[in-house]
Design brief:
alpha/beta, 16% strand, 7 helices, Rossmann fold, 248 residues
Length: 248
Amino acid sequence: MSNNIEDKVIVITGASSGLGEAAARHLSAEGATVVLGARRADRIQTIVKELTAKGGKALAVATDVTRYDQVKALVDAAVKTYGRIDVMINNAGLMPHSPLERLKVDEWNQMIDVNIKGVLYGIAAALPYMKQQKSGHIINVSSVAGHKVTQAGAVYAATKHAVRALSEGLRQEVKAYNIRTTVISPGAVATALPDSISEPDISQNIHRFYAANAIPADSFARTVAFAISQPEDVDINEILFRPTRQEL
């Protein structure tokens, strides 16, 4: 019985670590061809070597998601190499929490560039190919913060609420092209995401919260696989998941 993942060409941003790396490894093990985009070229090259050594098909393309030309080059490389793109996973994200009164304007801009524009650029790069194919699946990564706002997390939550809004708008617009859309909102998952917090007091609190609650990144990978593996006439539009012990 087909898992509806095998032989699909799947592009993943933010694939050098955390959620993206876990998804790449899991989907490759399920038989997908994975195309990895991230700024750390050496890291994604290492992952590709490991996957191909196990018999998988994988490609690494250095990508800064704040640059539309680089995101387009990532998707173009996937299509040029493998002939199509079946799934686009817009995963790259940053979470430098801070209270608004501390005026971390550069960090606000960085989150907007990566968390919102990065998703838009991924959509823009993949959508023309998927429209032409009359098939495809776009998966955008939001967060529990896309559903709940917390102190020191206002800007991050705003960007993740935006991802959900963009995903719903996209869902409504692509029905004519047989394209599926999913937005995934993880809770505390063990990644380096809290390391982007520059404020010592906030960082300490978030790291303590993650230490007490976070679950492995493979939980995200299995959620992605669930959405992709459904029959093509089933469109899983939104998934919110948390560690069982997480109250927030």
